[in-house]
Amino acid sequence: MPGIGRRSAERLAFHLLKADEPKAMALARAIADVKRAVKHCSVCSNLTDADPCPICEDSGRDRSRVLVVEQPKDLIALEQTGMYRGLYHVLMGRLSPLDGIGPGELTVAELMARLDTPAKNPGAVRIEEVILGLNPTLEGDGTGLYLAEEVRKRGVRVSRLARGLPTGAQLEYVSKAVLADAIEGRREMQ
Ligand SMILES: [Zn+2]
User: Fold this and answer.
1) What digits encode the pLDDT tens for the residues 132-141?
2) Residue 65 Cα to ligand 1 middle (Å)
3) Residue segments in the chain with a per-residue pLDDT below the cut of 50
4) Would you state the CATH architecture of domain 62-188?
5) Edge to edge, what strands does the sheet with 62-69 contain?
6) Neighbours of 77 (CB within 10 A)
7) Which pLDDT score is estimated for 184?
8) Hey, where are the domains in the chain?
9) 8 alpha carbon to ligand 1 midpoint, in Å?
10) Which residues surround ligand 1, an ion (CB under 5 A)?
11) Distance of CA 129 from the midpoint of ligand 1 (Å)
12) 42 C-alpha vs ligand 1 centroid, how far in Å?
């Protein structure tokens, strides 16, 4: 398990061995339920137990704006700022040619389909702005440049989160205030 070292794993194992059976079974069921019930939204790839996800379904949101992030946890961090009322698109990673990760391994085609065909965007609303919310790393920047070109080809405005974000930072660990500033101060990409 990520983030669990040998000592923690031992403690968890002994805790489970000591726990009474109903408790242990409840945990086993919860794990099975997560695998069964949680899937990716067919529109934005966010994790959800309903498809489309509640964000895509919310007609009170501005459906002409799409904020592109690498992972669902980035979406959660941005959503917690309460500063953004548009939609999202989760790429499920970033371009990394050395690891063999190209556009086909990400949800790039799905994003372009939303841009090309408004019927594929919630409420059949035409997308007018794509905001790039990728991590400020080498690969995140490369992914951003690639996407900016693809989006601009389609005559859609592209902006990216402001650079209050320290280089190398991970969106999920940046404070709410810095993220909120980054959304507010986003800049159009030329
Ligand atoms: Zn969605």
Assistant:
1) 999 888 899 9
2) 13
3) none
4) 3-Layer(aba) Sandwich (3.40)
5) 86-90, 62-69, 129-132, 157-160, 187-188
6) 20
7) 76
8) 6-37, 62-188
9) 35
10) 41, 43-44, 46, 52-53, 56
11) 17
12) 7
